[in-house]
Specification:
heterodimer, A: alpha+beta, two-stranded antiparallel ribbon, two-stranded antiparallel sheet, extended, B: mainly alpha, Alpha-Beta Plaits, 2 domains, 5 strands
């Protein structure tokens, strides 16, 4: 050891050092690329694997979750489980649940979030009704009993946010012509994605209503369409307020200021009458 | 080398000290490994929830949080600032291992250690060649690579492949195909590279080695003058390069094994018939004269210079 230290460094040593470093760096680059591939692949969370309440978005979750399983241990309903390698889709060792097996019971004290030591389950979530684990979607309207005109209503009845997250909307039953269809409608602003509806769907096998990740279950709003019944304000503030055209002769039966006053209409000067609140340049029709 | 080199490893120690003294740290170590694993298994197997979680993060008696600082550090590099519970847990673990020796984790706690020890035992029995021997600093390259990948992908990168987590979490929460990683490490150590995984590649060991660089608890070759060159300590040591500076040092060199690679497993203490090694602290200044052969060698250059 000491002998090596005393030896004067030779050019050959430097060459050797550089070669070794290059070799190690190259090997690490190869191994690192393989590891990165694993790490990025792991983000592809299967649609039916639902993260616990308060889970950060998947791209942040994998840096935050240390896979300790404390959320699993503190879940009173054994809903949560850790993903096992090669058996389930989520990143190995991370917590998730399958709604059709055991849904989230939406505990008021949210023990899984409290148990999380790192904040992968956001400690800012204190009201379970604010949880956003996913969004229920009535995915098979061909087999949903309510959609067929029967009164099943189970998904609606079990919903912890009943009448807000799921409502029954009455529709005409075109098949019978005389009955109603009570269509289960999910409202995305109240659904927490707990999966109780999916669990309780009476159909054998797969459920007609399923909790999906929001990225799959929701579309982006059409900003370029204006929903006039929701927002009556003009889209462009400086929009020219064109004159309101009134019925009258000579202008396609629309009254112009100073024009003819049709019979039956009250005189503007009288009480209850009307008069244009504007004046147009020039007389008569404006050629519009 | 001496004629005793030819004897089976540890045989002389058993004859001189008795079977127990020649195996006590090995047995203690296995018991400790079983103890820590058992603590975690009490809950899932017997419903006694003293300890919840796994080696990455745990909660003991609902009050003591423990977190693997290496895992947490990868998360921070991956741009997640953890909650205080995890930070406190990592500090407790970090300080503890900084005091007793970072790689105490490797030899006394890590569940992969029995696997690689078993691989080495079989490797020895079969008399296989040592195979590929990467450079000692390879694990630090791997360590660096892990942090780089964590930063680039925003994940706790090593946890995708870490055989320690795979085995430990697998035993506690469900194995899936995680056993394939454990088998891979076993086969790697058995046929590809002697002492390859723990001794050359594992970045967890590299991290804990760095963590315990200044650890108090150390093994010292304090009776090195008694060494009879039977080489048994080198045969059992998983990081045999750590022994040489201490055992073969000159009078003025410390007999304490200061290399952070030393796992404080204590196997050298076991197998040494003349009891050269013992556990002590790094501040132990008990004088330890060098071996007679070493002294002779040292004198020769002086003599020649004088002449």
């Amino acid at each position: 050891m000491s002998a090596a230290n005393k030896r004067k460094p030779k050019p050959l040593d430097r060459r050797r050092f550089l070669q070794d470093a290059a070799r190690a760096a190259g090997a690490c680059a190869v191994a690192g690329m393989a590891l990165s591939k694993l790490a990025t692949d792991a983000r592809a969370l299967p649609a039916q694997a639902i993260r616990p309440p308060g889970a950060l978005p998947e791209e942040d979750f994998l840096a935050a979750c240390i896979r300790c399983g404390l959320c699993v241990r503190d879940c009173p309903y054994d809903t949560l489980k850790l993903a096992e390698l090669g058996i389930e889709g989520p990143a190995t060792g991370t917590p998730y649940f399958t709604a059709r097996d055991i849904p989230c019971e939406m505990c008021d004290d949210i023990p899984c979030v409290v148990a999380c030591p790192t904040g992968a389950l956001d400690h800012g979530l204190t009201n379970i009704d604010d949880a956003d684990m996913g969004l229920a979607v009535l995915i098979d309207e061909e087999r949903c009993l309510n959609a067929l005109g029967l009164r099943c209503d189970v998904c609606y009845r079990v919903c912890p946010v009943i009448d807000k997250a799921i409502t029954l909307e009455r529709r005409h039953n075109e098949r019978s012509g005389a009955h109603a269809i009570f269509m289960p409608i999910v409202h995305s602003d109240h659904c927490t994605g707990c999966g109780k509806c999916e669990k309780s769907c009476v159909l054998p096998g797969e459920s007609a209503i399923k909790v999906l990740p929001r990225r799959l279950a929701t579309a982006e709003a059409a900003e370029h369409y204006k929903l006039g019944w929701e927002d009556r304000n003009p889209m462009v503030d400086e929009l020219i307020d064109l004159p309101d055209r009134l019925p009258g002769p000579g202008t396609d039966n629309l009254a112009a200021p100073g024009g003819y006053l049709p019979e039956g209409l009250p005189d503007p000067s009288m009480e209850g009458g009307f008069s244009p609140s504007f004046g147009l340049p020039g007389a008569g029709g404006s050629g519009q | 080398m001496s004629e005793k080199t030819a004897l089976p490893v540890g045989q002389e120690a058993i004859q001189e000290k008795g079977w127990w003294k020649a195996h006590r740290f090995l047995i203690l170590r296995r018991l400790t490994q079983a103890f820590f694993l058992g603590l975690f298994l009490l809950g899932p197997w017997f419903g006694i929830w003293w300890v919840k979680g796994n080696l990455a993060g745990s909660m003991t008696f609902d009050i003591l949080p423990l977190t693997d600082p290496f895992v947490l550090l990868q998360g921070i590099v991956g741009q997640h600032w953890p909650e205080m519970t995890a930070i406190i847990g990592a500090l407790i673990v970090g300080v503890a291992y900084a005091l007793i020796g970072g790689r105490v984790y490797c030899s006394w706690v890590c569940p992969i250690n029995p696997v690689t020890d078993a691989a080495h035992w079989l490797h020895d029995k079969l008399g296989l060649a040592k195979g590929w021997q990467p450079k000692r600093n390879t694990r630090f390259w791997v360590l660096g690579m892990v942090f780089v990948v964590s930063a680039l992908t925003g994940t706790i990168a090593w946890e995708f492949v870490n055989p320690i987590s795979m085995l430990h979490r697998g035993l506690i929460f469900g194995m899936g195909f995680a056993w394939t990683f454990v088998l891979a490490v076993f086969l790697f150590d058995l046929v590809v590279s002697r002492r390859g995984w723990c001794g050359h590649l594992c970045p967890v060991g590299a991290f804990y080695g760095l963590l315990g660089q200044g650890s108090l608890l150390r093994v010292s070759a304090v009776n090195r003058a008694e060494c009879d060159d039977c080489m048994d300590c080198f045969a059992v040591c998983p990081e045999m390069h750590v022994i040489t500076p201490a055992l073969r040092g000159a009078d003025e060199d410390t007999p304490i094994i200061l290399s952070p690679d030393c796992t404080n497993c204590g196997r050298c203490v076991d197998v040494c018939a003349p009891d050269v090694f013992k556990f002590t602290t790094r501040f132990d200044t008990t004088p330890a004269p060098a071996r007679a052969s070493r002294r002779n060698k040292q004198r020769q250059p002086e003599a020649s210079r004088a002449a």
